[in-house]
Design brief:
Layout: H1 2-12, H2 18-29, H3 34-38, E1 40-41, E2 47-48, E3 84-89, H4 94-106, E4 111-115, H5 122-128, E5 139-142, H6 147-161, E6 170-172, H7 176-183, H8 190-201, H9 204-207, E7 214-217, H10 219-223, H11 228-248, H12 253-256, E8 260-266, H13 270-289, E9 303-307, H14 319-333, E10 338-340, H15 353-368, H16 383-405, H17 409-414, H18 417-434, H19 475-489, E11 496-501, H20 505-520, E12 525-527, H21 535-544, E13 549-553, H22 556-572, E14 578-582, H23 589-594, E15 599-601, H24 607-617
Parallel strand pairs: 3-4, 3-10, 4-5, 5-6, 7-8, 8-9, 9-10, 11-12, 11-13, 13-14, 14-15
Antiparallel strand pairs: 1-2
Helix pairs in contact: 4-5, 11-13, 11-16, 13-14, 13-16, 14-15, 19-24, 21-22
Length: about 625
Amino acid sequence: MESNQKKRLFEEFPPISTQEWESVIEADLKGADYEKRLVWKTDEGLSVRPYYREEDIENLNYLRQNPDAYPFVRGNKGVENNWQIVQEIREEDLQKANKIALKAFGRGAEAIAFNAFNVNEVEDLEVLLANICLQENPIRFHNATSYTQLFEVISAYVEKKKLDVTKLDIQFDRDPIHYVLQNNKFPTSKADVMQRVLNVAISDLVQKSKIRTISVNAKTMHNAGAHIVQEMAYALAWGNEYLAFAAEKGVEVDKIAPKMEFQFGVGSNYFLEIAKFRAVRMLWAKIVKQYNPQNEESTKMRLHAVSSLWNKSIYDANVNMLRLTTEGMSAAVAGCDSIMLNPYDINYKKENEFSSRIARNVQLLLKHESYFDKVVDPSAGSYYIENLTDMLASSAWSLFQIIEAEGGFIANVENLSIKAAIEATAVQRAIDVATRKTVMVGTNQYPNANEFMLNEIEDIKEEEYDGLNASRRSEGFENLRLSTEKFVENGGSRPVVFLLTIGNLAMRKARAGFATNFFGCAGYEIVDNNGFETAQEGVAEAMAKNADIVVVCSSDDEYEQVVPQVKEELNKQKLNAITVVAGYPKELLDSFKAIGVENYIHVRSNVLEELKKYNNLLNIEKQN
């Protein structure tokens, strides 16, 4: 009975072909360019179509695989999608770090990432791990002065405490290739450094436990501005350097691959980030397979996702909480093994309890209220995500092969080609922010003009390297706005932008809104108005408000009369304000130039460069 009903239903509603859909779309576009209007060109060079259908995934062979099966596109987990909630503790004082860790464990953290800078003796580790059972709590160590020494300390600690090594879950953030990426060279000889890494990885303690002693810190590339394909391909080539060295020394891949972890940054491009993790797992499994592992488990990629620093802002920093949430969601849906969300104010504040709690609670919410840990690979079968996964895998694999053909990751780091490629991407992405092609809420669009951050920024030590350095896409706008604040703090007056709204109601309101967002990004005071009947009224009010900039907001049709009237009245009243036109009436540019009006703000403006110009015109940059 039910089968017959379904049959009748499909007979009454036959499937619609792709060609029929395309015909309807073409008709709706009314001659507009399909590619320009509907196809998304990503930073990675991918062309993402507006819709996908079942036929678009028919040739994806991995779809027939279950979760926890080679090539692990669908994840390393067979039943539940659980992951470790990791909290980083940056505190170097061992007693203070221990207290923070105990509190974090009690409030939902499932693993702690300790700063190991001051761990040099067993006694140091006893202080750091006081009342923390190493057999029950996963621990991570970063920033050690010597990871070989740290390993010796941990070995002695394990022996002294008579711990069951099979229950130890420890991660070393040890990655000498990361040092090369930042400094363009190894600290000593490559062979010596890599051999020491290998010796620890194949030691009895590590092989008998869940201790992982090699990290691939791909998050550094993400935070330097790399796009997703670069991040994936470079990370794969990076990891392959360790496998190749081990093979050269006669060490089986089954001993080395399971002792590696890949640390990726995760940004707020929700679906692409999900696809990234799915695709990179598949590619890594493919690489490891070439080393003839005896155990298929060795082809699994352990993924540690860390929230992006590249996309976090200083202004309107609460928006960072929303960014953290989507980043955590992407990593969880994609099946990452552990996730660490940085505090939302990490860019300008030292470690504090409130922001650490918020970061931790985002993950707790994803688990205990949204149940992201219950379903393995919920994105499986999504036409959209599966196609993104396939496109990213294909593009990253092509770039990986190019790197290998050119001598491998280390060679490309040492000849600076990796650095140059990432920096070129970062520059273009920064331009996209400057022109508002990429929107950053609260920074280059919808700013809170009455927010002041100069005295909120704490002195956080950031090291500069000869090689690749981290950056943030919002820095240009933030530096500009901080210059305005510094100018005021040094005795200058906060620039006043007066919106002289006149004429057509809809156009003047729209352009006033645009101007508010535009100049608000520089931290100027914005004076909006309901509208004026005449230019004389508007200029009189601008004088009363001590305007530094007067923005004429009206329609293009009315500008021919209004702008000359405003400029004439400004000259007459001797108000030495910069005259700006909201819009770009091409046919009037020459006539306006003749009367001294040459400043325009419009959707094609490079907002950052224009605001720098106004800062210079107002002598803000010169006095800082």
